[in-house]
TrEMBL record:
This is Mammalian cell entry protein. Residues 40-119 form the Mce/MlaD domain. InterPro entries: Mce/MlaD, MlaD_Phospholipid_Transporter. Pfam families: MlaD (PF02470). It comes from the Bacteria.
Length: 426
């Protein structure tokens, strides 16, 4: 009768032990289960080493805010690939080229977490953060090992000296500082409040985020930053070499600025005059533009002439060289002609050539109203009749402008006399 209750108690005991075992297992796997069940996206980050990151324990932060947890850490070919699970929409806030680094939670180390720094252009991140954009923390022991042994010994000695200084009255001085600190701290509180900005919840975070973005850009542009530093160094060397010239320029700069001001005042007047003449000149400028458009084909046709003109000028150089002394002699000749010779030509000779001739006395009525130079011209024009051909052969008729009929006042003209003599001979 008592066996059934014993079996029921045994069964209950077994169930309790099983439930306790399962609860213990779940308790020990709490972090893994929480990381597995946590919603979000996975991102892979490459580091040179894991550096104390723990699966399902180490947090992932961005701008100081928890955004995920480390899911797995795998080493392969000298590169550690850390897979993290981050909250939804975190990829959009990371940018197209984010970076990552392992940070300690305290100054002395302890737990470590992964910090993601946004970078690149705005947009959703795709892919893996490479090892070139990741950093590992610098441990305090690593910093200490970088110092020489003598420096480390000096630090230990300084610590002992500090302890003895505190024992010899330094503690009292510290108490006095602490007593006077509240007044100073109140002013410091005002300064810190001012540093928080107008929106304390967002301004400081935005400032930190902007500083991180600036540092990311600078770290991604190391080559250009190095070139800029080298250029600045070169500029500094040049300025140092020309410091005397720079000092002289600074000394004479006030006078130069005064002269520049005077020149600008004068230029202001010139510009005012130019502005007044600009409007009337616009039609001429438009016409000039059309003229230049029409002149283009003319200049095109003139190019061969100009090209040939070079050879003509080259061939004419000896002629010009020869004409130079001739022109000097001609200049002397012209100087000699001036004076009495020109006065005589301009005086009685020109008067005689421009006056008409009329006979006087017995020759009154002869001559003509035309001036002498015209009569002379007619005389030379009649010389074209010097050679004439007729049926009797060649005959020369030289008529210089005067003939037998030119004589006036005779009872019979010379032409009639010659005709009568001819008939008498027949």
């Amino acid at each position: 009768m008592n066996s059934k209750p014993r079996l029921s108690a045994l069964s209950l005991g077994r169930i309790f032990v099983a439930v306790a075992a399962v609860s213990g297992a779940l308790l020990f796997q709490k972090a893994q289960l929480a990381a597995m069940l946590r919603p979000g996206d996975t991102v892979q980050i490459q580091f040179s080493e894991a550096h104390r990151l723990r699966t399902s324990v180490s947090d992932v932060k961005m701008s100081g805010v928890d955004i995920g947890v480390v899911r797995s850490v795998e080493d392969e070919d000298g590169v550690t690939t850390v897979t993290v699970k981050v909250d939804d929409d975190t990829r959009k806030a990371m940018g197209t080229a984010p970076s990552a680094r392992v940070r300690p939670t305290t100054l002395l180390g302890g737990n470590y977490y992964v910090e993601i720094v946004p970078g690149g252009r705005r947009g959703e991140f795709e892919g893996t953060i490479p090892v070139e954009r990741t950093e590992l923390p610098v441990e305090l022991d690593g910093v200490a090992s970088a110092f020489p042994a003598d420096a480390r010994t000096g630090v230990r000695s300084s610590t002992k000296v500090l302890d003895s200084t505190l024992d010899e009255g330094g503690t009292r001085a510290l108490r006095e500082i602490l007593e006077s600190a509240p007044g100073t701290l109140r002013s410091t509180d005002d300064v810190l409040r001012a540093l928080q900005g107008t929106s304390p919840r967002t301004d400081l975070a935005d400032l930190v985020r902007g500083g991180e973005n600036a540092s990311t850009v600078l770290s991604s542009e190391n080559a250009r930053l190095g070139d800029t530093v080298d250029a600045l160094a070169t500029t500094a060397r040049v300025l140092e070499a020309r410091r005397h010239d720079v000092a002289e320029a600074a000394r004479t700069m006030p006078a130069s600025l005064d002269e520049t001001a005077t020149l600008l005042d004068s230029l202001d007047g010139v510009l005012a005059s130019l502005e007044a003449t600009a409007d009337p000149a616009r039609p001429s400028v438009r016409e000039l533009a059309r003229l230049l458009d029409h002149a283009d084909p003319v200049l095109g046709r003139a190019r061969p002439v100009v090209r040939d003109l070079r050879g003509v000028l080259r061939d004419a150089r000896p002629l010009v060289t020869t004409l130079i002394p001739i022109s000097r002699d001609l200049d002397a000749t012209v100087d000699n002609v001036r004076g009495p010779v020109l006065d005589r030509v301009n005086g009685p000779i020109v008067d005689q050539l421009t006056s008409s001739w009329h006979g006087t006395g017995e020759y009154e009525g002869g001559g003509a109203d035309r001036p002498l130079y015209k009569e002379t011209g007619y005389m030379f024009a009649n010389l074209t009749q010097a050679n004439m051909m007729d049926e009797n052969g060649s005959m020369v008729s030289f008529l210089p402008g005067m003939g037998p009929g030119s004589l006036a006042g005779l009872p019979i003209s010379l032409e009639d006399l010659l005709v009568a003599l001819t008939k008498g001979g027949q």
